[in-house]
UniProtKB/TrEMBL annotation:
InterPro entries: Glyco_trans_2-like, Nucleotide-diphossugar_trans. SUPFAM superfamilies: Nucleotide-diphospho-sugar transferases. This is Glycosyltransferase 2-like domain-containing protein. Signal peptide: none annotated. It holds the Pfam family Glycos_transf_2. Residues 39-127 form the Glycosyltransferase 2-like domain.
Amino acid sequence: MRLAATPTDAAWGSRLAPLDCWTRPEVSPGTKYRLLALLPVRDRQALLPACLDSLRGAVDGVVALDDGSEDHTPRILREDPLVVRILHRQRRDLAEWDDAANRYLLHQAVSHFCPEWTLVIDSDEELEGSFRDHRETLLGAPASVRAYAFPLVSTDGERISAPIHLPRMYRYVGDAPFAQRRLHGLPIPLSVLEQETRLLSIRFFHHSGTDRQRRERFEKYRVADPHREFQDSYDNLLRPKTVHPLLPPEPELRMDDYWIENAHRPRFFTGDEDGPTRNDRSRHGDRFREAVALLGEVMIERVVLKERIERRRYRVVHVDVPSLSWEVEPELAWLVEHFRIVRRPDELAAAFTRTWRSAVAEAGETLLLFLHEGLERGLFAHGVRRLFRDDACRGTK
């Protein structure tokens, strides 16, 4: 069968080629699952069985996308009863590998099963067994928790690397916006905010630690990203990283706040005194409202300040969709930069209050309209809401 298109698909254009879809015959129509795993795979017959075994008892089913495998991967998927649906894409050159489109297609394909949660895993990874012990706790989290991040460690089978923290599990919502960056994009919907994500102590093990595996990954990305469009260099993949002992899982589940670690970015406002001038605050008007309308479709946490175009104009870009960029006034540029640097909601609110309390009083209704519209659209997701409980700000309404 072929999957039907959805309205959201139009944004991806030709990147969503028609797919053949196989659903396990024993799966009854309308069957619902609490937790489904999303698994993109290509030519992984050696590692795929271990990946699937790690999911047994942890998830209720697996929806896989076979990206044109030429080995026994399709047979392994069909023979495993945990796999409830398989999408098949025609094989393409590795230089055409579109990881973002594959993950979006998987997200759309599970809508048939109405899952509560989805977990993203790659075919050369294994989920730590302790997940099974804490599954019900994670699935029963309050509505304010919309995603989980996990420590991912590289392993050679005996030792592991230091962890990197990646969001891999999220509450399922159909037609959610996804990063369109072809490689190295965020694997969960862009609509999930950092403060709605919890960092767990449960690990993902990535089989990328042996000499052979490091060389294979390097060659894979050398072909997939020949012009280094998505990463400046892949030399880091060749360096041995598995220097830590492989310890048993932690007996108790830990949940911590999660904040995306961002690469260093140039600063344009080095201090409060470098922020927008009084003249800027008095003349923003229509341009501010236009900027909010443009940025309202993306959360401020996924936007970064890239360059100063001229003395009082700046360019911001979306970190997952680099083709999306906007020219903005200094006030909005200041907010974007301070979000990336200050990061914590309470600190951001304090910095905003310190610099902008007088601006609110001077600019009056126009600036308040800008702020309220940003709040309603989810632009100022972190910390700014608390400002409107402040008497000094309320007094200018």
